[in-house]
Amino acid sequence: MSTVGIKLRELREKTGLSLRKAAVQVDIDVAILSKMERGERKFTKEIIIRLSELYNFNPENLIIDFLSEKVVYDLKDEEFGLKALKVAEQKIKYNKAN
Amino acid sequence: MSTVGIKLRELREKTGLSLRKAAVQVDIDVAILSKMERGERKFTKEIIIRLSELYNFNPENLIIDFLSEKVVYDLKDEEFGLKALKVAEQKIKYNKAN
DNA sequence: TAAGTGTTGACATTAGTTGTCAAAGATAAA
DNA sequence: TTTATCTTTGACAACTAATGTCAACACTTA
């Protein structure tokens, strides 16, 4: 399940745009946007941002969802996934501090 | 920097195996193992496990390092990286519970 | 020299992602 | 029903990234 897709579909509908029109606005093929909204293809950060602008919506939470889905994908079915997450957190904090 | 590579190189040297011999044992090309140890190519989980067996070493921490490096790679330079990590953690905990 | 070590780069192969397109199916209005 | 508009689907091409293969290089030691 892709929360990002569901949310962006809701936003599009709220904005009153058809798939075709939204796709044209952000310069991608209709088919791709359709698949992205339904989770059949991955969004890119770039497209999320362009769509957010189109829908006049703050992209922060969408990007967080997008990134977290990537991470979950890497770690799904991994016995040590949570431990790896903790280590990753330390590394990122350390990097930020420098 | 790849901690996994450094550790596996140390383990190999401690075991007294040359690159060539270790590579033959785990059935990969010498060039690849050389590059993996130096972080020029990515390890796979499979190779880490095979090498750990060869060196008679518990792979758990190596795998955790390996996975965390993947995650860090996904989130490096991301403004909301830490937030995404938190969300990912919740999702994984939720998945585990079910 | 000769044998062993690790490194490098060029290249082919493979796998995965992304883009393009046409057609089909669904829905609603005329 | 016809027409228009919409979304979904699948086949395919194009592109990119990952992986494997190989030969040669430089260095050290016997």
Helix and strand arrangement:
The structure is a homodimer of 98-residue chains.
Chain A: H1 3-15, H2 19-26, H3 30-37, H4 45-55, H5 60-75, H6 81-97
Helix pairs in contact in A: 1-4, 1-5, 2-3
The structure holds a DNA duplex (30 and 30 nucleotides).
Description:
Two copies of one chain form a homodimer. With 98 residues, the first copy, chain A, is mainly α. Chain A has one domain (3-97): 434 Repressor (Amino-terminal Domain) (Orthogonal Bundle), CATH 1.10.260. In chain A, 74% of the residues lie in helices and 0% in strands. Chain A contains six helices and no strands. At the A-B interface, helix 5 and helix 6 of A face helix 5 and helix 6 of B. The structure holds a DNA duplex (30 and 30 nucleotides).
Mean pLDDT of chain A: 93
Largest sheet of chain A: none
Fraction of residues in H or I helices of chain A = over 70%
Our estimate of the beta-strand percent of chain A is under 5%
CATH class assignment of chain A: Mainly Alpha
Distance between the termini of chain A: 36 Å
CATH superfamily of chain A: lambda repressor-like DNA-binding domains
- Oligomeric state of this protein: homodimer
In a few lines, what is going on in this structure?
The structure is a homodimer of 98-residue chains. Chain A has six helices and no strands.
